[in-house]
Specification:
alpha+beta; 5-stranded mixed sheet
Length: 366
Amino acid sequence: MGWLPNVSVMRNPAILSATSNPTPPSSPERGRLPARGVSGLFDACQIGVVLRAVLFVEALVATATLFVSSSPGEWLVQTATVTGGALPATLLWLVAACGLKKPLGRLPRQAQYAAGAVLGAVSALYGCGLLRLTGVLGTAPWLASAVAGAFIAGMVMAAMVLRARGQTPAAMTARLEELQSRIRPHFLFNTLNSAIALVREEPAKAETMLEDLAELFRQALADPGESGTLADEIALAERYLAIEQVRFGDRLRIRWDLDAAASSARLPPLLLQPLVENAIKHGVEPSPEGARLRIRTERRGDVVVIEVVNSLPPLRWADEPLPRGHGIALANVRDRLRLLHDMQMQFSAGMDQKNYRVRIAIPAES
């Protein structure tokens, strides 16, 4: 697939044969909003949550055994002994919480807390039973184990809720930044002026351009869900780049390498847009020669890779130092990805020879 210097070629479904969304721009299907996720406390299916829960329980065990140990050696023995029951109980609770995530997510919050506490008590009784059956405990403290299990489960669920609430300010900050970037006056005026210039000579292209602009505003002003698909983000980027293509003409050369198998991967809404805007601002605008922009998606097993690469302007054109961003947009993208995918995501950005490359790796939607 070669570099695409014009709007009509860029939007041709034959060129975008790898994309999962070849719907024409005027189709209402193209502008659909991402579906909202289930609102639940049980987010125990992520590796990061499992790791933190295990470390938290182990820290509690290590601290508690300090009270009944008279020497470091005895403390190690006591910690290992209690871990023999606490670790299986913790893993059982995590497996149960993950398996019941969807049905429990449909319950009221109070019922979710109660169910989680009951699962914690049952899991603790299971761990206590293991220690009793293996002869480690002469007398099993059933009641104390159940109460401790319910209490620890409640603490873990509270931590999950606090982490989920942490998504709100990050999402709102990103939403405000996207509104400002899309509705900034010079972008709006340039788009309208370009459309006016096309009205008489190429009315169809002017109409398409105004439709794209209207869709950008509609998405920016809509109430986003917790996550959307990569296909939705690609469709929005297509509309934005279609407008910028009219503005820059042959100076903007776009290449799409899209893998249909990656289209269902989950992303926070309005995540790809700031990366594309950064590529335009720092790659195309400063250079009279323009720049090349490449957007690539690929599914590799259980991982989806997303890359946004733009060539950098030659230094000989710069009468003064080229403007450098503050990295706010990149930091926001990274933080929002971490909130959605935790330790299962990878994010990198930086110079790659004569290009600037942003690379994202996230779990594929099963």
